[in-house]
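Crash report, auto-generated. Payload:
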Amino acid sequence: MELEKVKPGMRCRIVSIDPSGMAGKRLLDFGFIPGAHVEIVRNAPLADPIEVVLHQTLVSLRHEEAKKIMVEVIE
Amino acid sequence: MNNPCSGCPGSISCLPTEEEPTENQSIADSYTVAFAGQPNVGKSTLFNALTGVRQFVANYPGATVEKRSGIAMVSGVPLTIVDLPGTYSLTSYSLEEKVAVDFLLKQPIDLIVQVADASNLIRSLYLTFQLLELERPILMALTMTDVARARGMEVDVEKLSIELGIKIIATVANRGKGLQELKRTMIDSCAKPTKKPGFSLDYGPILEPVIQKTTEELATVDISPSIPLRWMAIKIWEDDPDLDRFIHSSQQKRRIHAQR
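Recovered output after restart:
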């Protein structure tokens, strides 16, 4: 599923990522790569941003960007 | 000699403007080091700690992004340190990155120092691999090693150094820790530069053959000699939007585009 749709408090593993465009490249630079674990801190369905923890760093994403990241929920 | 210039009213004459200082004016017994790193890794703290008050702010032509440079004296040898804008990557997608790449590849620098946050090392390593691909002398300065320790993380500097094939110095810049060792290592590395970093990232069985092939093809293209061909080949396959600035002939630019 898309990272965009994951509920707060859940942890997931990145399955794939759409690397196209500047946003895609920047996500890769931040370490959003297949296999990396992400915890969702805050996610309002209609409003930006989505807050996630990746590699002990809090990252804010737009829904548009979070759509590029496909994940599977671990817990 | 004062030349009256057309822009000045009547009696006032202005001094001829001095030529912009260029980086290639380096004297034989001084060295230039470029600080590269992601935003917020403590680059400027380290820069200030090393250069003290002898820093000045400079704007360089062609970009509005600022590079700061200052001088650190190490046992009588002036070491010019250029603090590049913080970048997450080395692509052409943003102006800061372009400024950083162009400086690192086109200027006659003696050494690149990657400033990396020890308390969040994994994030810095993405940039490390990109910097290693520039095939220039490089070392890593780990910052905030005290913060890392407080979070229960101890970086095995020796092991990391062996794995990456580069020298790594642990520092706590705002307490002055590790700065003398860093200075000494920088001077040593400038005086006895290693040709290439020992590490090369393996892109795997699908990408390696195409990267190799493109690298070989690039050998016949008129590219600025300071640009490593493997780096260029990787950027071509990453679909980097602005590589043309490194290629001299327009016919060859079209050829490179046709390959994509």
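Post-recovery validation: Residues 221 and 252 of chain B are 7 Å apart (CA to CA).
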